[in-house]
Amino acid sequence: MVAKDNQKKPTKKEQTDAVKKRENSDSNPNKNLIIVESPTKVKTIKGYVGNDYEVVATKGHIMELPKYSLGIDIKNGFDPKYEILSDKKALVKSLIESAKDKKAIYLASDNDREGEAIAFHVQKVLEDNIDKSISFHRIVFNEITNNAIISSLKAPRQIDIKKVDSQKARRVLDRLVGYQISPILWKKIMKGISAGRVQSVTLRYIVDRESERENFTPEKYWPISALVDDQYEFELKKVEGRSYDSKNEELKEKAEKILLNPDNSKIGKIISISSSSTSAKQLPPYITATLQQDAFRHFNYPPKKTMMIAQKLYEGIQLKSEHKGLITYMRTDSTRVSNLALEELKNYISENFGSKYYSFVPFSKSKTNDKNIQDAHEAIRPTDISLTPEKLKQYLGKDELNIYSIIWERYISAFMKPPVFRIVTIKMEYLNCIFEAKFRNILEKNSLEVLKILKPSEKIQNTPDFKENDQVTITKINIIEKFTEPPSRYDEASLIKKLKEEGIGRPSTYATIMGILYDRNYVVKEDKKLVPTDVGKIVVNFLVKYFPEIFDYKFTARMEDDLDRIEKGEADYIEILSLFYSKFEPLLNQTDKMESFKEHFIEKTNLTCEKCGSPMVVRKTKFGEFLACSNYPNCKNSKSFSFGVCPVCKNGFIVKRKASKGKMKGYFFGCSNYPNCNYISNSKIKLLKCPQCGSYMINDLENHKIKCIKCDFAIDLKT
Questions:
Q1: Is the Cβ–Cβ distance between 407 and 429 less than 8 Å?
Q2: CA 192 to CA 506: how far, in whole Å?
């Protein structure tokens, strides 16, 4: 007699789960695990590798230095005490479960220092929690395409410990500086501000440029030109045989006396015509810095936005039949292009434009760039040159199409003959003065055939049909008084160019640096230019005074070189950090001798507190300025400065408001007369400054005025 089974019949869900478990059990011994950084890559790569591989993502770093302590054992070789991030503990647990029954694990984080560190930490965590027989492999690729992924799986390597050490050194340096200097800033300047090894040097460039502008003394100069035949402008070059210097007032007066005589003839004579040809510079494919610069110039995209868009194009876009990576890795300082990609490009140019248009140039690099190039990387280029912007238009959003278009244009034009221009120089004599004009025409379009967005801005002019000894009519003589301009403020494009030229920062850091400067309110934008705030200026002045070498331009660049040397195996991690700390530690020990800079944030006014009778002062914080009682904290009277008169009703003040929901969620500007006046703006409005003395102004609600805090100037609002 068969014993009766007392077990309950499994539910349908339990049966389904059991089948899945058996299927997984059958296939898992032959299954491998690929670990990438981004979840977006999972879908793209999964489409290439099939069912023999499970693909999962770490979503960036899984380990970091502790949040509330230094986390570095300085006395024990600067050993960092990494710990699993609190918000990644569940993910790490999932990674361990996925890895337990696999045959091999392929670490496919990004091909840079950060990616190598992520791979190292993932392997370390998994090795401590899974069977020792499971093998680990490091794979890297510069593009997410079928060929690149399959090739990388066929040629795995071990983790590059030198690259890991380089990333570790950078992280430790940044922690040592930021964690140990920031508390000094809180004590000596104000709470809530911070310093950073590279961030503060970048800020110094902006502050130093502002100082140059403030100390600049304009000089007069007088460019002189002649309008010929009512359409061609000729510049004055010589006055009675003497070269004309537009800053020489005596020479200007002499030219003025000769040229502005009302009895003068109006006829000039063409004395020479010469021509030459010149080719435009053949620019290399994009690296991170140049992509960010062009994205800013053409689309006004900040570096952070550019990199987010490029990351999406790199990781993969859903096309008609596949999820495909459209560009190569976007954090690179190399202009190298693989032989296979070059061959495909050469064929594309030959088939679509003609073989004569192809031009290979081994792009030269500065010494700084040469030693910083990571040869494993390529330039930023399309993964498939035949995918023109026009073909991808239906699959990409506006921003994605913009970035892809300039990458495609820059890449193809880099290997096409550059345009050739004809320069015609015409000299004219008039009243014993020599005038000159240059005219530029296109002789050969060449790479201009493919450039739409990146078309060069050179002025193209029609050359007049003049011959030597021709007489021409002088329509007008222009003598204009001008003043020399101070150095331009940096914008994001020119600042990144400067950092690149000086060897400060690396491709992965440019966007992050800019974001920190904005977040800390050290820098604001005015007409697309970077302007340091008072807080930014004071922080830089303090750091340069008390930590001069640490925040020196050349020292920072040398440290970047040292990190590169660690990666190449030419320098030792402990040796570099010990040398740095031997200079840094003595400065930290001088804290008591550092003067307080807090008084720089208080400005006296002529106003009296209506509540206690004490003087009112301007207080500056990292969030902005406001008027406050000097008797704080005994008296907490404060007032905001004025943004001006409502431009609609002319009877209310512009006030800053905050909406918690709806279309205007966040801060916006409106009229104090709401709901009688519906003026509203979500554009940033500057504080109103006194036109008489340049100081701040406040709203005088009682007298319906806006008045200056220092002088007697006031604006009466309409009643």
A1: no
A2: 27
